[in-house]
Amino acid sequence: xxxxxxxxxxxxxxxxxxxxxxxxxxxxxxxxxxxxxxxxxxxxxxxxxxxxxxxxxxxxxxxxxxxxxxxxxxxxxxxxxxxxxxxxxxxxxxxxxxxxxxxxxxxxxxxxxxxxxxxxxxxxxxxxxxxxxxxxxxxxxxxxxxxxxxxxxxxxxxxxxxxxxxxxxxx
Length: 171
What we know:
Elements: H1 2-25, H2 27-30, E1 36-40, E2 45-48, E3 54-58, E4 70-74, E5 84-88, E6 94-99, E7 108-113, E8 154-155, E9 164-170
């Protein structure tokens, strides 16, 4: 199990590194890449209604199957996966996650977005802020933060390329 997780993280890091290196050499190419435009609940939100769905909005239509690359974890990015169902808006720009049952009260949750998310044209998420990435540790260690996509967004495990996370706490 541990080896499979580590292999996935290293593979994700390779994909993220490729995306970052490409964006640094051609800034004009970044303008048409998909980006996350909003997440509800917002990063670092407190007193979130445990019965509320979670939504992620993109500026591009996203590829079929991308919902498999968005995971809600209890406690931390390596915490247990929260069961539930995903649905897309008709134009595939908004992904909604409905937990199978209400989230636990007074509990931290982490929404994890994989660096492998792609739009319908096969373009990966815009990681223009990769230069702001800070160091980190592999999954057995702690997670260090840095603003990739605005306040509260964090690059998971630095150069390991674990994706982006947003944390919130329920009421």
